[in-house]
Amino acid sequence: MRTRLAHLLAWCSPGLPVAALGLPLVVYLPPHYAGTLGLPLATVGFIFAFVRIVDIPLDPLLGALMDNTRSRWGQFRPWILGGSMVMMLGAFLLFQAEPGVTAVQAFLSLFILYIGFSCMNLAQVSWGSRLSGDYGERARIFGVWTAFNVFGTLTVLFIPPIVAKAMPMAPPAAGIHAMGWFIVMLAPLTALAAAAIVPEGEAPSESHRVRLADVRRVLADKRMVRLLLVDLLLSVASGFTGALFLFFFTAARGVPQGVASILLLGYFVAGLVSAPMWVRLARSWGKHRATALAGFWFGIAMLAVLLVPQGNVALAAVTMAIAGVPFAAPNFLLRAMLADLNDAQQLDRRLGGSDGAETTGLNFAILTATAKLGYAIPVGLTYPLLDLVGFNPEPGARNSHTAILGLELLFALPSAMLAVLAGLLVWKWPITAAAHADIRARLAAG
To answer: In the chain, is it the N or the C terminus that has fewer CB atoms within a 10 Å radius of its CB?
Structure first.
């Protein structure tokens, strides 16, 4: 059954502010806090990595609480609305910080932001698995969701150059501040739209206590472990690229920061334009094989980026656009695969003689936790390593050959190896279209 377009668009809309956070958190805010706000490079790397690691255990707890939520407003609406309020506060504190901000203030701002982010994101993706039970339609649903996410990323990418053009005398931090206001305003509006328009579907009748045993049961499923490992590897691969993108092109390739932002724009535009191709591949070839192809493609493309000579903007633009083609694919394909796995786990529980506890929210929470860990590792590793080789992050600073070489190797090699490894791991995913059709039929038969 095809999901109504109005419902699909309203459900996707909270992805705009959530996705708008992703680029600044990886690409813009760490250099901003290290360069403009004056925190030491290693300290910034530690803060942005440690806060994600501290936040990770909260995701399974939030997911389990969502699974246990039964209210007059629904199962997921209270979480997406409440999460938008918390995310507003965290975004304001983080993006509007001024020189003199302390490490503790930066940590607390990030922590508040991630709590709101987790509530909104988990409620949305868990809700999305209820919109349809069809294998192909789920690829479409999460494909449109990813298109919204990429559009949110692109929109926030335009904000700094627009601010610079409109206010040429504004300080460098003005673009960062404007990004923050964009997220602060958009989060509650999109959460309200989803809550007002989108039906939730029937929640399971049983409620249950939040138990550590449910987490252990989910992680005992080898299919879940494989999915989590693939997501972790691809998140780390993408995180290395994002964390070092501005440093690589400005310091190692001599590209002005404004031009580097345009290269990043081309990367995301290529991902957005290519998203329908990946949906079609998922329907015809299987979600897991499409995910594997995306991993192989990204890994090879990152090695090609290393070959771009200094100052060759045209070639850099072409290679980054090619690297961006698979950008959107793993994000939505892995979540669509997890929705299929939820059905398989439900059937397993039924065949085992017990329906067990509802774990949809918990499953998506654990997947979100691996993605957070994947983006925490690159900043936590690369910034201290750059500091160790003597890299200076200040705009226009002169760096030694050793520092530049270290930057180049960190930018491309880990991303390439991890993406290819993820592609190999996901290739033999067991829940194909035929297997899922059988699972849905057996569930429907009771």
So the answer is: C
DSSP string, 173-228: THHHHHHHHHHHHHHHHHHHHHHHH----PPPS------HHHHHHHHT-HHHHHHH
Q: What is the DSSP string of 26-95?
A: IIIHHHIIIIIS---HHHHHHHHHHHHHHHTTHHHHHHHHHHT---TT-SSHHHHHHHHHHHHHHHHHHH
Angle among Cα 94, 95, 97 to the nearest 5 degrees reads 70
Asked if residue 110 lies in contact with residue 51, where contact means CB atoms within 8 angstroms, the answer is yes
Residues 6+ apart with CB under 8 A from 311: 253, 254, 255
Three-state DSSP class for 136? helix
- Find, among 352, 371, 272, 416, the residue nearest to 55 by Cα: 371
Q: Which domains does the chain have, with CATH numbers?
A: 9-197+211-445 (1.20.1250.20)
Query: How long is the chain?
Result: 446
Q: How far apart are the C-alpha atoms of 301 and 310, rounded to whole Å? A: 17
Q: Enumerate residues 6+ apart whose C-beta is below 8 A from 131.
A: 3, 7, 8, 11, 141, 198, 201
Distance CA 333, CA 202 (A): 24
Determine contact, residues 184/92, Cβ cutoff 8 Å: yes
- For residue 370, the number of C-alpha atoms closer than 13 Å in the C-beta half-sphere is 22
Report the Cα 80 to chain-centroid distance in Å. 17
Eight-state DSSP code of residue 131: S
Rounded to whole angstroms, what are the CA distances from 342 to 112, 152, 431?
30, 28, 11
Per residue in 347-401, pLDDT (tens digit) is: 888 887 665 566 777 788 788 778 777 777 877 788 888 888 888 877 677 888 8
CB atoms within 10 A of CB 235: 24
Tokens of 110: 């990030």
Q: Specify the pLDDT at position 326.
A: 94
> Average pLDDT over the chain, rounded to whole?
86
The residue type found at 111 is F
Cα–Cα distance between 61 and 203 in angstroms, integer?
Answer: 18
Name the pTM for this structure.
0.74
* Predicted confidence (pLDDT) per residue in 2-15, tens digit: 788 889 999 999 98
